[in-house]
Amino acid sequence: MSSFDSRYSGTPPWDVGHPQTEYVRLEESGEIEGSVLDVGCGTGENALLMAEKGHQVCGIDSSPRAIKKAQAKAEERGVEVDFKIWDAFDLEKLDRQFDTVIDSGLFHAFDEEDHPALVKSIRSVLKTDGTYFILCFSVKETREPGPRRITEEEIRSDFNVNWNINYIKDARFDSLVHEGGARAWLSSITKL
């Protein structure tokens, strides 16, 4: 069972009740293309947004409670998303490829030594020329509480071979405990 599963018995600080503002902007700008995998989807707000905008969407999370809540939202809203309880390090076994992978808070949940395996897993489900978007806490966010903070250099190091980093820019991570949102990085990274 997910180490995060118990957090979903209540409302964790990252479960803001709406899609992350940065993902709304990305979808509106046309940067989200084709089929979408929401990796670490939580209760599904970002995945549901993408499906409502016409994308074929799969959302995975290791938390059974989160997936159950996501499925209930999809049913209530009449939106079709393939939500699955799944390990982000085992995406190859989904036996599917996606045009876009979105990540809202998963990348920063793991230690740096876990990133090569996560990146390899993401790569296994992303089509060539597909894009991986990461929204993660930045080292520029000094307020507590929160997850591990990520440096720009760490992102660049993790994606320095067979990826093109389109951009890494300052962003905001909507949060229930950080007034005005937490300082974050929004990265767009294309598989070569």
Account of the protein in words:
By secondary structure, the protein is α/β, with parallel strands linked by helices. It contains five helices and seven strands, in the order αβαβαββαβαββ. The protein has a single domain, classed as Rossmann fold (3-Layer(aba) Sandwich), CATH 3.40.50. Helices cover 26% and strands 28% of the residues. It has a seven-stranded mixed β-sheet, sandwiched between helices. Helix 2 (45-52) links the parallel strand 1 (36-39) and strand 2. It is globular. The N and C termini lie far apart (34 Å).
Structural descriptors:
192 residues, alpha/beta, Rossmann fold, 5 helices, globular
H/E series, N to C?
A: HEHEHEEHEHEE
CATH topology: Rossmann fold
Strand content: 25-35%
Instruction: Calculate the mean pLDDT score and round it.
Output: 95
CATH architecture field: 3-Layer(aba) Sandwich
- Helicity level, as a percent range? 25-40%
Q: What class do helices, strands and sheet pairing give?
A: alpha/beta
Radius of gyration: 15 Å
Chain oligomer state: single chain
How many DSSP E strands? 7
Coarse morphology: globular
Flag low-confidence runs: none
Biggest sheet, open or closed, and with what strands and sense? 7 strands, mixed
Report the span from N to C terminus. Answer: 34 Å
Number of domains: 1
Q: Which homologous superfamily in CATH is the superfamily? A: Vaccinia Virus protein VP39
For the largest sheet, list the strands in their spatial order.
3-2-1-4-5-7-6
Number of helices: 5
Can you tell me the CATH class? Alpha Beta
